[in-house]
Amino acid sequence: MRYIGMLAVVLVGGLALAQSTPRAVPRPASAPGVSPFQVEKASDVPDTTKLERSTKALGTMREVLRDVLGKLEEARRAKDVVKLNCVNEKLTQIKGLLRISEQADVALQEAVATRDTTSGEHEYTKVMIAQQKVSQMRSEAEKCIGQLAFQADENMSVEVEEPKDLPGGDPTRPKPPDDVVIRPPPASAVQ
Fold first, then answer.
1. Closest by alpha carbon to 135, among 180, 101, 181, 173?
2. How far is CA 137 from its chain centroid?
3. Which pLDDT does position 173 carry in this prediction?
4. SS3 at position 43
């Protein structure tokens, strides 16, 4: 019993420590002079910037949703069930993340209006994480279709050079054999 009590104290202390630790999110690549791999605290971002970035992230996620819907139609036209299921799974995840982000954006706007910094930081973090996940889902959907392996430019042209020492003609239609002439033996043995 004493062991369980100590475990409960450690868990509660760990939760309190985890809640007091500031959250960090990767900066979007659009931030000027910042690598996308640098991490910033949500508390370091001004409220107006949070609102701008959140709105921009929602627009980006909607664009990704349109792109993945196009890939779904492409898989339907190809009548490839495996690709269709794969893209549909990614699309479902993107829709869920977009829904969560839209709700978080509304909550972020309310938090900024009421000057609730803790709630605002939390909602901002949700939107930024969802944007990263949606971007990842887009690349996974492209992998489903196979576009990353075979992406081609519409201006691409292919030139075929035929070796000069090849025999001419169509190999599927060979020439008929020459006529074979058989002569009967002479009628008499006298020459």
1. 101
2. 4
3. 82
4. helix
